[in-house]
């Protein structure tokens, strides 16, 4: 995947519960941001660097809805305008920070680090977490690896067989070819495994017994959202299909560090079907997710370190199961080119 930042897009920036009256810092596409809540509970998302001497504004304090730099006391309102400079009455108009467009949806705050005129909420494709019919379990990781490595990882799920052999691995994944479809705004890669035994998770949570047809779809929605759509369809009568969605929000913090917000969304009615409470199911899912993420993170950390030290003339080779990942790279590169190349006269 072409390296670089696509800034015209919605990026998960913090879980809603993380944003309080105590300012926090998050980096998005190489830009430090400061997030806090105003006195009415609404969020504010500002550029996180004081323009005076570069101090992190997250180390400052709130004065009402304004944030005061903790270094020299320069104060900014929630729209980024400077409203007070100690020891002088005149406030320079250039002494301001950027206020970023954001939306709060499904327990996440999404920011738009690019052109604010293009910040259309309809371009935020995640909608599962706000659906009251769905429960969810959530985990966050900071991955010391470039954004493109995480997209590659999620668009080729054949690695489950090898990297996650003690957790979610299934040899059937490696025997069924991918069917990849390319759309204007996303990539979809699907494999369907027919007449197989249901994995333990499908048995315990979905209540599936006997043979099933299992489909697994990986999607990439540029620039920072991947989805894993799982479906188990029973061959025996009297059983209901079991479906779930894993939402992978990938936010590049720097060129080699990515914040990974993950949530598994599932129909709440499966709790009644399985007899597992929602709290217990979430706990179970978090344990599985954490184990899988730790395995992914370990491999991605090692790969990033390796890539930074191998000879620059190394030629990368691809294989058959890379069709989805290669299509995602192409889509990302097109978005990058569109954003960074000047428009034709």
Q: How are the strands ordered across the major sheet? A: 11-17-16-15-14-13-12
Mean pLDDT: 92
Low-confidence stretches: none
Basic shape: globular
Terminal Cα separation, in Å? Answer: 28 Å
Topology as H/E string? EEEEEEEEEEEHHEEHEEEEHHH
Helix content: 10-25%
Number of strands: 17
CATH topology of the largest domain: Naphthalene 1,2-dioxygenase Alpha Subunit, Chain A, domain 1
For the largest beta-sheet, the strand count, sense and barrel status come to: 7 strands, antiparallel
The helix/strand class is alpha+beta
CATH superfamily of the largest domain: Naphthalene 1,2-dioxygenase Alpha Subunit, Chain A, domain 1
Tally of alpha and pi helices:
6
Evaluate the radius of gyration.
22 Å
CATH-level-2 architecture of the largest domain: Alpha-Beta Complex
Strand composition percent: 25-35%
Give the domain tally.
Answer: 2
What is the CATH first-level class name of the largest domain? Answer: Alpha Beta
Key traits:
single chain, Rieske Iron-sulfur Protein, 2 domains, seven-stranded antiparallel sheet, four-stranded antiparallel sheet, 6 helices, 17 strands
């Amino acid at each position: 995947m072409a390296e670089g930042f696509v800034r015209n897009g919605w990026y998960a920036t913090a879980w809603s519960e993380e944003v309080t009256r105590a300012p926090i810092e998050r980096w998005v596409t190489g830009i430090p941001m400061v997030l806090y809540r105003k006195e009415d509970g609404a969020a504010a998302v500002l550029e996180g660097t004081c323009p005076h001497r570069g101090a992190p504004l997250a180390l400052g304090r709130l004065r009402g809805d304004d944030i005061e730099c903790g270094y020299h006391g320069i104060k900014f309102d929630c729209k980024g305008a400077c409203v007070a400079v100690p020891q002088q009455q005149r406030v320079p108009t250039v002494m301001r920070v950027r206020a970023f467009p954001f939306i709060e949806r499904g327990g996440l705050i999404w920011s738009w680090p690019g052109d604010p005129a293009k910040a259309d909420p309809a371009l935020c494709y995640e909608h599962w977490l706000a659906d009251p019919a769905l429960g969810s379990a959530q985990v966050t990781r900071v991955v010391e690896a470039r954004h493109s490595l995480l997209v590659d990882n999620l668009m080729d799920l054949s690695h489950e067989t090898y990297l996650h052999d003690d957790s979610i691995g299934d040899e059937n994944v490696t025997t069924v070819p991918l069917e990849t479809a390319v759309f204007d705004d996303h990539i979809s890669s699907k494999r369907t495994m027919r007449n197989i035994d249901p994995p333990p998770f499908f048995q315990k949570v979905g209540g599936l017994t006997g043979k099933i047809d299992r489909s697994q779809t990986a999607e990439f929605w540029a620039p920072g959202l991947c989805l894993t759509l799982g479906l188990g369809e029973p061959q025996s009568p009297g059983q209901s299909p079991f479906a779930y969605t894993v939402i992978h929000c990938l936010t590049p913090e720097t060129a080699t560090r990515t914040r990974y917000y993950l949530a598994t969304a599932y129909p709440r009615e499966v709790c009644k079907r399985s007899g597992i409470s929602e709290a217990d199911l979430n706990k179970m899912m978090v344990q599985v997710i954490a184990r899988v993420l730790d395995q992914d993170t370990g491999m991605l950390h090692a790969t990033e370190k390796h890539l930074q030290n191998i000879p620059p003339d190394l030629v990368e080779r691809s294989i058959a199961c890379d069709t989805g990942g290669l299509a995602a790279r192409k889509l990302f590169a097109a978005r990058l080119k569109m954003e960074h190349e000047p428009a034709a006269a």
